[in-house]
Design brief:
By secondary structure, the chain is mostly helical. The protein has two domains: 67 residues; 101 residues, Cytochrome Bc1 Complex, Chain D, domain 2, CATH 1.10.760. The protein has six helices and no strands. The chain starts with a helix and ends in an 11-residue tail after the last helix. Bound molecules: heme C.
Length: 186
């Protein structure tokens, strides 16, 4: 299940259900002018299940639409990148990156016409760990965070060069204030 749907159907669903029940209780309280605290909670949930399902779909749908609306591609996705002095492995990565990735991801990971910036908070190690780079190069990437289309697999890049490219991207990210953030939404 795509990540944004997972989130939509866990947090959003529960939050929506919570507020729906609160509102419902409040309305009933006002209308009956008496407490509904004695009403069996499980019974009430059961009675409201269809309505809750509709609500979940509506809230989930709205979430997806918001998520879609924030996707970009092309020049508007580009970022300004501060270029640090690289370690030895970072320098090796810079060469491999320029040869294999820069055409799409732009010089120094700043974003290009065919791919997003890798110096971007969604590619921080908490959201896209090093394994995500290996997978991306092995299998390619289906469009999901942006609107650039799919990334084709890059089998020509050796494991050693992949490691070096990851080091290079991490050094760039660090120099631009992007560090580990625990995975939440993108
Ligand atoms: C033909 C263009 C193209 C080339 C070449 C390319 N990429 Fe990508 N890459 C993309 C696009 C487009 C995406 C974004 C897909 C999305 O999330 O919508 C992407 C996404 C990624 C991601 C994120 C993967 C994920 O799990 O979301 C990583 C990491 C990545 N690229 C690394 C690289 C590296 C390293 C290279 C060079 C070895 C490279 N790419 C070469 C187009 C390219």
């Amino acid at each position: 299940m795509p990540e944004f749907l997972e989130t939509a159907f866990t947090f959003r669903w529960l939050e929506g259900a919570y507020w729906f029940l609160k509102l419902e209780t409040f309305t009933r309280d006002v209308m009956n002018k008496k407490s509904v605290r004695t009403v069996n909670f499980a019974e009430r949930i059961k009675a409201k299940l269809p309505a809750l399902l509709v609500l979940a779909v509506v809230v989930g749908g709205a979430w997806v639409m918001i998520n879609e609306a924030t996707k970009t591609s092309g020049p508007e996705a580009k970022v300004a990148v501060k270029v640090p002095a690289f370690s030895a492995v970072g320098q090796q990565g810079a060469i491999a990156y320029a040869a294999n990735c820069a055409a799409c991801h732009g010089a120094n990971g700043s974003g290009g016409d065919g791919g997003p910036p890798l110096v971007h908070k969604i590619y921080n190690p908490g959201h896209h760990a090093d394994g995500a780079f290996f997978l991306a190069l092995q299998r390619g990437v289906s469009q999901h965070h942006w609107r650039f289309g799919n990334m084709p697999p890059q089998p020509q890049v050796s494991a050693g060069d992949t490691k070096a490219i990851i080091a290079y991207v991490r050094e760039l990210q660090t120099a631009n204030g992007i560090g580990y953030q625990p995975h939440r939404m993108q």
